[in-house]
Amino acid sequence: MILKLNDVTQRFKSGQHEIEVLSEINLEVTSGESLAIVGPSGSGKTTLLGLCAGLDRPTLGRVELVDKSIGELSEDQRAVLRRDNVGFVFQNFELISSLTALENVSLPLDLIGAKSSRHTAMELLEKVGLKDRAHHYPTQMSGGEQQRVAIARAFSNNPKIVFADEPTGNLDEETGAKIEDILFNLNQEKGTTLVLVTHNLELANKAHRIIELKQGKLTRDQILQKETI
Amino acid sequence: MRSIGLFKLAFVELRHNSLRLFVYSLSISIGIAAIFATGSLKNDLITQIDKETKELVGGDLVVKGFSAINDSLYDEVLDQSTAVAHEKSFASMVVFANKENTRLVNVRAISADYPLIGSIEDRAGDSRAINTQGGLVSINESLGIQYGLELGDSLFIGNSVFKVAAFHSKAPGQSGIAATVAPSVFISLDDLSGTGLARIGSRIRHSYYFLYADEETTKNKFKALEKAVIDDGLRLENLESGRKRLGRSYKNLFLFLNLAAFIALIIGGVGAGSAIDLFFSEKKKTVAVLKCVGFRYKEIATLFLVQILFLGLFGSGLGVAIGLGIQQALPGMFKGVFVVDFVQQFHFSVFLISMLMGVLVSVLFGLKTLIPLLNSTPLMALRSSLVNQQGYQRINLIIRSIQLASLILITWYLTGKFFIALGFTFGLLLIMLCLWGLAMLLRKFARKIVTRLRSFELRYAVNALYRPQNQTVLLISIIGLSAILVLHLFFIRSSLVNSIQLLDNDHRPNLIIFDIDEESVEPIASFLESRNVSVFDPLSIVPMRIHRLKGRSVFSWKKDSTHSIPSHVFNREYRVTEREVLGENESIEEGKWKGNYEGSGIIPISIEENFSGQSELSLGDTVEFNVFGSILKAEIASIRKVDFTQMQAAFTIVFPKGSLEGAPVMYAVSAHVKDKEKMMKVQNELMDNFKNISIIDLDQIFESVAELGSKIEIAIQFMFSFSALTALIVLINTLYVSRFQRLKESAVLKTLGAVSNRLTRINIYEFLILGVLAVVAGLVFSFVVSYLLMTFLFKVPFSPDIFSAGIILLFVLAVVTFMGVVNSSSLRNVSPIRLIRGNG
User: Fold this and answer.
1) How does residue B374 score in pLDDT terms, banded at 50, 70 and 90?
2) Which residues of chain A lie closer than 8 angstroms to B757, CB-CB?
3) What is residue B840's predicted lDDT score, i.e. its pLDDT?
4) Where are the domains of chain B?
5) Does A46 touch chain B (CB under 8 A)?
6) B429 in contact with A, Cβ within 8 Å
7) Which residue stretches of B215-296 are H helix?
8) Any chain A CB within 8 A of the CB of B752?
């Protein structure tokens, strides 16, 4: 089990009030599985993703990522856990503007201190079809190209699990479809676990499993393609 | 109603960004503060000079010059006068009673009625006593403190012993600058002859002060006598010409102060402009949305113009408030530099000009961003990638031209001279452009070097210098410019000091004994040699005036207004020497050096090249000199180049040996005395043994000049510190502007697994590298600027004070890095969750 959530509740303070964004979520994700989190806006999808990826601590309950309890780790310990095990794809790409595509992709490897970071990064850029754009800066690339770089970056440190937050949310349909293919292909090739948040049901249907959130509660947990896990 | 709504919208926007915009305004404030303080100081001074002109001039009419007024002219000026006073002043050494100290002073021998207007202010004793009893002296208060003198103590001036009757703190017409080099010592005019210092050939300045019953008489006298006085080689001063002279003497100082303040304003303007640029570039979408919902071009322009104007007004207002504080501090900073002590006042005209200048600079630098922003299309609300480039380049060019023209106009206003304004503006632009280029090169170079390193943090930090919001090149340029302003002064000072120290050897004199008559030359030389002092060849000095130039009488030249020879060429007294050989500091430029005179015919003389230019004299031209009534006819045989920077005797006119025989010659002997103690002893023994001589201790003069130099240097550094402070504020601005991007990047790095310490290191490295690059840019440029100044202007070997420069640069580096450390605290605590919550 690469990811396990037990009775996870997340509350935020909003002025004088406390809002419960997630209520008693229980979830187990096995290694190599791909999981899509769907639900209407404000249902708690992104909060759940953040908790799963160790970006935040739960108010109540327990989140275990790669056998480590997130709630018991300090900010820096969680950073190290992410560095060694997690890849991330954001809706807004979140590339570093002062770094080239190649430098952005090799960033997670540099953080580890990998020796052949440039070589590995170049291989990944080749896989996402951007070898010839390796030395371009994010501002010189289209949204689709930037997201491809972001995907390459997410896989560069050979993570055990990749989290994707609305990876096609800012892209047109055609580009989005290409991105979906690249994401799932790489995920399959590397044997990585994939957890993604999306509004796009077509994208969600490409995952092995879909869970649905409504008002912070898990309302559906459906396995779609169990045989491929 | 709609316009009220617009104003409301403008201020709502300003309020939402108040802290950020406050820092932008502060960039302008510092420059305005400097402009306001300088302007106020100047007006305070002018007001005070206007008030005290009569006292500073000393009378309704004053006749001044280096020779006594002739009797008939004196009678003419005296006629109808109600009061008269006479002063003779000259530089001399005083020996204190304990005989352990001597000091160069300005001896002012005054008649009983001096001063006709105002008074000599005494801190202790009574200066008036010097003219009621003989053998008394009133000495400058600071001189008394320096040498621990008390009332009743004795001192020697020439052959006479005086007792201290008073310590004066202020005397008419005495500036602090002059007092630093040669403090004033008042004696009675009646006591002067007893000192033996007022003899033929002594360089004594005569001043005759007159008061008249009414203005009309003064006016008529001035009109009637001016020509006659000038023709007599003297100067006639009334209140108006006195006011002009006093104002003129501070012209260069205020020119410098204004320009230093203006540099700070320009740096602030560039910094604020760049920050406004980034602020407004974030507004592209707002403009597009406003256009979508039906706002017209004019309305949106008004909205943003109101914001720019408000920023300018706020920044200027803040600047004036800071300037008011500085105005209180400046007189202390310039203590002793001005002839008057003035009261600080609020000058509305200076306030108005400062406010206008701040608003103008704000608008000038804000327009560059505003115009292209207004050109954005409503479509940008839908697609932010759409940018309307049409016409942008042309508008940009127009705005740049307006900026340039305005800068020249402001500089013109501040300097009062168009060509100085033009030269200064283009010079500053050239330096900024060169710095910009150097900053780009350095950043590129740093990236090339650092990307080869293994340290991820260092590599990342260098790459961060390319973050668009960082304004790295701008920061390197303006921090570099501030470093240049401060550093080049250090380099120039150290080079000048070193060049003087280099000259301080056995082959260069540090003691000059003058006013020596022919019989005493040999005994003085022998006396010095017996004390193991190196003595140099004695110099003969003969004072003379020009009688005829190129065959035409001085009178005829003065009447002729078609030539451009300055009047002082005809009026001044020349102190010439006769010599067989050229001095070490001289070289022949034109003609042939003639060192000997056969005793008949026209005397072949050598003149200095600048004098040749001024007097329009060239080879073969004749000049007739009046030497105490005898006429000497001379011909220009050679034109010399003289290096005045060397510590050697330098003469404008040199006669060949044997040509001045029979003239009333005085001699000067120069010597080198090794240590300070021995110097004092030798001087005292000389004064004891040879009564009528005057001594100048060059070491002491250098010390006084150095003291004065450091006083002025502090004031200069103070003015340049405004630029440095502005650069720091622009750096803080940049941190604000890039804060959003930095937080986002930190969140990304944290998400990817960077621990807090790593983020701190990256941030500190980034600022450290920025500081290093700025310091290198500043250092390189200061070296170049100082080297050029030393080589071509001062003509002294360039020897920079690396140690002081190192300390300054380390300080700059520490400040910049400190900013990084402060900034990193907010970055290390950033939560990565903000990236996916959409507030990244």
Assistant:
1) low
2) 76
3) 36
4) 1-60+238-416, 64-211, 432-506+698-840, 511-673
5) yes
6) no
7) 215-231, 239-249, 251-281, 284-292
8) yes
